[in-house]
Amino acid sequence: MKPFRFLLVLAAFAMAGFAAETKPAPAGQRVFVTAHSFHIFVAPRFAPLAKAAGIEGHTLAGSQMIGGSKVIQHWYLPEDKNEAKAALVAGTVDVLTMSPHVYMPDEGIDQYVELGVKHNAKLRALVQHSWTPWDGWVGDEKVVKNEDRDTRPLDKVRVANKRWRELIEAQVGALNKKVGRDAVHIVPVGDAVMKLRELIAAGKAPGLTKQTDLFTDQIGHGKAPVLALATYCNFACIYGVSPMGLKDSEPALDKISPELKPLLQKIAWETVIAYPHSGVKAPVQQ
Fold first, then answer.
1. Cα–Cα distances in Å, from 89 out to 71, 114, 119, 244?
2. Of 10, 45, 49, 285, which residue has the fewest beta carbons closer than 10 angstroms?
3. Rounded distance, CA 68 to CA 92, Å?
4. pLDDT tens digit string along 172-190?
5. What share of the chain is helix, strand, coil (3-state, %, to 5)?
6. Taking the chain, what is the end-to-end CA distance rounded to the nearest angstrom?
7. 182 CA to centre of own chain
8. What is residue 133's DSSP assignment?
9. Residue 85 · residue 116 · CB < 8 Å
10. What is the average pLDDT value for the chain, to the nearest integer?
């Protein structure tokens, strides 16, 4: 190959690499969060992540919280208090997030999605598969006190996590068929938390030495690592963007270990792109 042509080829490769690295950020989304206590905390955390990712126009369209709720409880709120319904009818929501309880199916998911797509044909809905409260809810799965998590194997948690995920998958699959497109995806937070718990059990989670480093009580309300991990998973599903390397403000994580945030971001992204119902695919290698 002649020297000049060789230089042109090198330049072409360089430009292709530059184009891949400078892929434009996705458009900001109007996000409405309906939630219980295992999800509501994500609402204000998206904006700093969007800013760190160079995403302009992200908007919190609203948030609606009912402790320990099923989605159907949100649906049956009085009309003057049901901000989620009002926003969907107004067509001011691009992404609606929902967080069902462990008892499925949850009719509220169908009701909100059907209402939403009626007023915004491009609406996307995300259903969070949360980590399992009490470490399980049938038979002898439930922990009596938070400290029980430190002394028992994770086998029961894995079974309960899988059972809940499969219940959500069944409802979401049927709903997408009813709507006629893949309007609804699942955020695999439960799987990501399970991976983190396994790393703690193996002594491979920086700054975390026991299962109770993740939870505040026997129900399973999350401490800082769980809250951050859940947020990263949801953000990845909303924008299809990796949270890895984003400089969001999470001082509680830095106090535990400077290596913890990168690990949580990695777990979140790898879990989301590996899960077929998340709606996010691994980026094509250039």
1. 17, 11, 6, 35
2. 285
3. 26
4. 999 999 999 999 999 999 9
5. 50, 10, 40
6. 24
7. 17
8. G
9. no
10. 92
Task: Tell me which residue of 117, 160, 167, 113 sits closest to 135, measured CA to CA.
Answer: 160
Measured at the CA of 60, the angle between CA 55 and CA 65, to 5 degrees, comes to: 140
* Two structure tokens written together for 114: 């059907």
pLDDT digits (tens, 9 = 90+) for 88-124: 999 999 999 999 999 899 999 999 999 999 999 999 9
**Residue corresponding to tokens 């009912």:** 66
What are the two backbone dihedrals, phi and then psi, of residue 16, each rounded to the nearest 5 degrees? -65, -45
Class (C level, CATH) for 27-278: alpha beta
Q: Locate the DSSP E strands across the chain.
A: 30-35, 59-65, 95-98, 124-128, 184-187
* Per-residue exposure over 40-51, b if at least 16 CB sit within 10 Å of its own CB, e if not: bbbbebbbbbbe
Compute how many other C-beta atoms are within 10 angstroms of the C-beta atom of residue 227. Answer: 20
Which position has the token pair 């072409």?
A: 12
SS3 140: coil
Sheet containing 59-65: order of strands: 59-65, 30-35, 95-98, 124-128, 184-187
- 62: β partners: 32
Q: How far apart are CA 217 and CA 100, in angstroms?
A: 20
- Tokens 């695919």, located at residue: 281
